[in-house]
Amino acid sequence: MRVIRKQEPGGERVLALGTFDGVHRGHQKLLETGKAYATGHGIPLRACSFDRHPLEVLCPEKAPKLLTTLAEKTELMQQCQVDELLLMPFTRETADREPEDFLQQLRDSVILRAVVAGWNYTFGKGGRGNAEMLREDGRKHGYRVLIVPPVKDGTGEIISSSLVRSRLQEGKIEDAEKLLGHHYSLRGRVTDGKHMGHRIGMPTANVQTAPSKQLPAFGVYPGIAAIAGHRWAAAVNIGVQPTLPSGRVTVEAHILDDEPDLYGKEIRLMLGNRIRTERKFGSPEELTCQIRKDMEDVRKWIRWSEIGQFAALQGNGRE
After folding, report:
1. Alpha-carbon distances of 20 from 39, 54, 75, 77, 155, rounded to whole Å
2. For residue 204, which of 70, 197, 242, 255 is within the disulfide window of CB 3.0 to 4.6 Å?
3. What is the DSSP string of the chain?
């Protein structure tokens, strides 16, 4: 899959329009629709998104954390068999562009054969562009417009990035993953921390995640730590470490039954539902006792959860 950072001339294309944060099941349905049309007509599918969330420019204080970093979004798009991913720069000038000008830009950049968008997709200044404007422009300029209806979960709620984000903020990782249609994970480099884990006999891997990444609710989670083809069971603490505060939000993984050298390496954490909230303990000894209990809860999760059973987890099992 090609990743394009600015508009460039192209031949015939099917364009899929959206922010695609999370590349959740609703997005996947849209991309499947575009891919089916593109394949049927022998045309590449180009997904058109922005290099940042529009609210980062329009209203920074209301900009949400992202479900997927650009690297994760790119990987998921490739899994959806997108041929090209266009990451258009979003600036104040972009926000002030009239929707008609936005459509003209799309038509000028490729030989446009079809556009695929979600039922609630808006574009252009003030969000004035919508599905009906797309249909009208398609009729006028001779390209097909495919508007994808909402995809709902088992309770009838419409799947959206906001709904996924709310489940994460409740610590309900597995519910979020049902909406996503893929695993939610945290990725980052293992960095040097305060070494408090070593001082209490519970060494941890301090994972430096992307600042833009949406973290789940503070607390302790069962998880799988994956790195360089190896997997370990882990108790993952996300929060501000109230017992031994560091002054910042941290993601720490306590590896079970092993002490691998992870410093400086890239690691991926796949989580289960939160097993307890973060709280302050009366002493380091009390904290150590609780961590041991957390590790036992992780072992139970490993035995009973689908993701836990997926890996060979004795020591450093191979993926």
Report:
1. 21, 12, 12, 9, 23
2. 197
3. -EEESS----SEEEEEES--TT--HHHHHHHHHHHHHHHHTT--EEEEEESS-THHHH-GGGPPPBSS-HHHHHHHHHHTT-SEEEEE---HHHHTS-HHHHHHHHHHHSEEEEEEEETT--BSGGG-B-HHHHHHHHHHHT-EEEEEPPPB-TTSPBP-HHHHHHHHHTT-HHHHHHHHTS--EEEEEEE----HHHHTT---EEEEE-TTBPP--SEEEEEEEEETTEEEEEEEEEE--SSS--SS-EEEEEESS-----TT-EEEEEE-S--EE----SSHHHHHHHHHHHHHHHHHHHHH-HHHHHS--SSSEE-
Task: Report the predicted TM-score, pTM, of the whole model to 2 decimal places.
Answer: 0.88
Domains assigned to the chain: 2-148 (3.40.50.620), 183-318 (2.40.30.30)
Instruction: Grade residue 312 by pLDDT with cuts at 50, 70 and 90.
Output: very low
Please state the rounded mean pLDDT for residues 285-300.
87
Say how far apart CA 131 and CA 95 lie, in whole Å. 18
In a 13 Å sphere around the CA of 287, the CA atoms on its Cβ side amount to: 20
How close are the terminal C-alpha atoms of the chain, in Å?
A: 25
Cα 215 to its chain centre, rounded Å, is 10
Output the average pLDDT for the chain: 88
Range with the poorest average pLDDT among 43-57, 62-76, 304-318: 304-318
